[in-house]
Every structure is written in C-alpha cells, then in structure tokens.
Amino acid sequence: MVAAAPGGSGKSERPPYEQARDELTELVKRLEAGGLTLEQSLQLWERGEELSAICEDWLEGARARLTTALAQHEQAQHQQAQAQDEQAPQRRDRAGRDQGQQDPGAPF
Q: What CATH number has the domain spanning 15-82?
C-alpha cells in the first residue's frame, strides 16, 4: 500500500520513506555498476532525484513532528515547574503550622 506524503495535498501518492530509500539505494547500485546506456543512466538519475525529494519530504515532516513534540514537552515541564513553585510557599506555611509554629503575621 502506498501512503500520501506528509503535509502533501493528497493529489499524488508517494511511497513510504523506507520504500523510497530502498529503491534509491538499489538505483545507485545500478548506476555505480555501470554498463548502462546514456538514456538508461539519465532515466535512473531522474528517478533518483524524485526518490531523493520524496525521502527529504518525509524527513522534513519527521523533523517538524519532533520539533513540535519537543516544544510541547518543554512547555509542559515549564508549566509543571511553575505550579510546583507556586505551591512551595503554601507547603511551607502548612508545615510551620503543623509543627506548632506561629504564623509570622499572628499577634501571639
């Protein structure tokens, strides 16, 4: 089954990253082996350019997803740290009262 490219309009179907990468690898081996006509070499080169662009699209999509996930994680950590900082004085006040210490603002 062929999947649509990430972020694409859905018009053209593109192979999954792994399939495009594997086909590109085989194509390079054929070009490096030689023995092809100029026309065959040009056709393989053009297909290689297409496959390279497909792989790059997939990788750019993966980078964008990772960037978003990391930003969300960092934001969640920051919010959690803020919440803990806001709760710290309340915990200290409660701890002081629990130990029988007076509130500094209390008259006696």
A: 1.10.287
